[in-house]
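Per your request, structure below.
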């Protein structure tokens, strides 16, 4: 993992890499396969109307849990653990990024030791958002003493005790994970491997070579320019595998607050407004300066598709109302009409404010190339842009004390990716509601990093959350996508499929675009190489 994990508590993680690493040790009630269907993991079966698990009014779902499941320390997994996870996340003092989604839950009740009933405050069509996929279960007996304000002090944040196929041996944050086979695992004859090592750091090219050419490692998630990837994949030790539906959206976030003014101990405070980026002319010009076609061709290649949408799959949720355009000439005209005049050095200014922007992104050859492409276009339109690169392990850190995280967003623009954790786009779109804004009060543990606040967007999203008719609900979520783009706080660039380098001897790896890379780790195995 090039972006090495720094935390192994899935209930406190804001980084995909921390979540993926936690999935080695922890499990949800059910996982999403590559088609978006649920596979029971800690649950005995998937709830349905037919088996009585789903209430017809959409107000509750009942889970039957597997019996005989044990935590890594030998304690039994029960319904009380599921109830505790709701209590842990729902306590604002815990600072869990999942608080926004758990807001929909009225209560979680243990009907008996192996039955859990989740009651919602209102009809909830996508009940699979709770305790499925990346929403993993942590043990009550381990974390009960560290709920609320003490959540960050739990030793198990770094020494996980889960129900997963492998148990913790060693964790060096930002560097290394060592794990061993869990002899108590609840799936017979699994996992296959006696031990597991995850190495963090380095760069994507080195990671790809370690799998494809030297064979030192068996698996690596990679983000590499496609032209470079084509040269590396000629190695004989491994193969490249592309994911299915494009569930990753590389996009630019446009800060709606002032990252350079501090109020009450925080910058990028919602008590401020960005002095330049909230200007209508600048907001309209910026998307015209993103050469998505060149970016896609010169970097992502087979892995990506230029897009104007945040939601690009599945098909029923994709908007047909948006389009992207690259035009330096039009952008210049928009800025000129908005009163931004070019000075002697070619840089525009208005009301004494120079049109200069800091554009940050995690360190990678791909992102630095994209920054350079955008900087050149902006310069031609009279915008001075200074690219800034932040080591990915810091940029995506779940540590609220780290000022370089994307949730702090102490810059004008930033480029990053968001990953859809479920086939339903509600989770992604929830990330941009007003209550998801990161701030000092919540430990910067939220996902609405650009701080966009739009009452119409919030109302539309809330309407989708209770709409049980799937066609009407899809229409509302499409409207959310369109409102988000029109608001100017995000600029979609490329829709990307996950790409991994994998040993030729590795088998059983089923990659789901709707779940974490390690979601089926228990079923990976080795096959002798054919000669």
């Amino acid at each position: 993992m090039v972006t090495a994990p720094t935390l192994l508590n899935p209930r406190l993680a804001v980084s995909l890499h921390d979540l993926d690493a936690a999935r080695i040790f922890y499990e949800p009630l059910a996982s999403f396969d590559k088609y978006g269907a649920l596979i029971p993991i800690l649950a005995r079966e998937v709830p349905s109307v037919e088996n009585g698990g789903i209430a017809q009014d959409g107000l509750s779902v009942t889970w039957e849990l597997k019996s005989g499941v044990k935590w890594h320390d030998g304690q039994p997994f029960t319904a009380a653990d599921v109830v505790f996870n709701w209590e842990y996340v729902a306590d604002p003092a815990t600072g869990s990024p999942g608080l926004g989604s758990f807001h929909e839950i009225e209560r979680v009740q243990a009907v008996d030791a192996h039955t859990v009933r989740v009651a919602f405050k209102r009809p909830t069509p996508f009940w699979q958002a709770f305790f499925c996929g990346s929403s993993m279960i942590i043990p009550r007996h381990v974390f009960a003493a560290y709920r609320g304000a003490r959540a960050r002090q739990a030793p198990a944040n770094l020494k996980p005790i889960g129900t997963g196929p492998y148990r913790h041996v060693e964790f060096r944050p930002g560097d290394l994970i060592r794990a061993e086979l869990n002899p108590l695992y609840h799936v017979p004859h699994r996992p296959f491997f006696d031990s597991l090592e995850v190495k963090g750091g380095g760069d994507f090219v080195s990671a790809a070579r370690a799998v494809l050419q030297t064979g030192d490692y068996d698996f690596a998630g990679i983000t590499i320019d496609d032209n470079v990837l084509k040269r590396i994949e000629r190695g004989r030790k491994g193969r490249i595998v592309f994911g299915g539906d494009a569930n990753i959206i590389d996009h630019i976030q446009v800060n709606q607050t002032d990252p350079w003014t501090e109020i009450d101990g925080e910058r990028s405070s919602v008590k401020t407004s960005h002095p330049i980026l909230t200007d209508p002319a600048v907001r309209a010009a910026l998307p015209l300066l993103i050469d998505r076609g060149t970016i896609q061709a010169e970097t992502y290649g087979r892995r990506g598709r230029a897009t104007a949408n945040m939601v690009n799959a599945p098909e029923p949720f994709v908007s047909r109302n948006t389009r992207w355009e690259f035009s330096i000439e039009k952008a210049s005209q928009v800025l000129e009409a908005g009163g931004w005049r070019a000075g002697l050095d070619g840089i525009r200014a208005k009301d004494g404010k120079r049109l200069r922007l800091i554009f940050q992104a995690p360190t990678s050859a791909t992102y630095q190339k994209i920054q350079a492409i955008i900087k050149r276009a902006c310069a031609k339109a009279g915008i001075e842009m200074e690219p800034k690169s932040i080591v990915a392990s810091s940029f995506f850190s779940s540590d609220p004390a780290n000022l370089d995280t994307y949730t702090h967003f102490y810059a004008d623009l930033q480029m990053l990716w968001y990953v859809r954790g479920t086939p339903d786009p509600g989770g992604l779109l929830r990330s941009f509601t007003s209550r998801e804004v990161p701030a000092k009060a919540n430990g910067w543990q939220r996902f609405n990093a650009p701080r966009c606040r739009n009452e119409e967007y919030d109302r539309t999203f809330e309407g989708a959350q209770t709409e049980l008719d799937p066609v009407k609900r899809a229409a509302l979520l499409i409207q959310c996508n369109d409102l988000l783009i029109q608001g100017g706080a995000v600029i979609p660039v490329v829709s990307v499929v996950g790409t991994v380098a994998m040993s030729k001897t590795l088998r059983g790896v089923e990659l789901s675009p709707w779940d974490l890379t390690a979601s089926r780790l228990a079923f990976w195995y080795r096959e002798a190489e054919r000669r």
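The longest strand covers residues 105-112.

Regards,
D.
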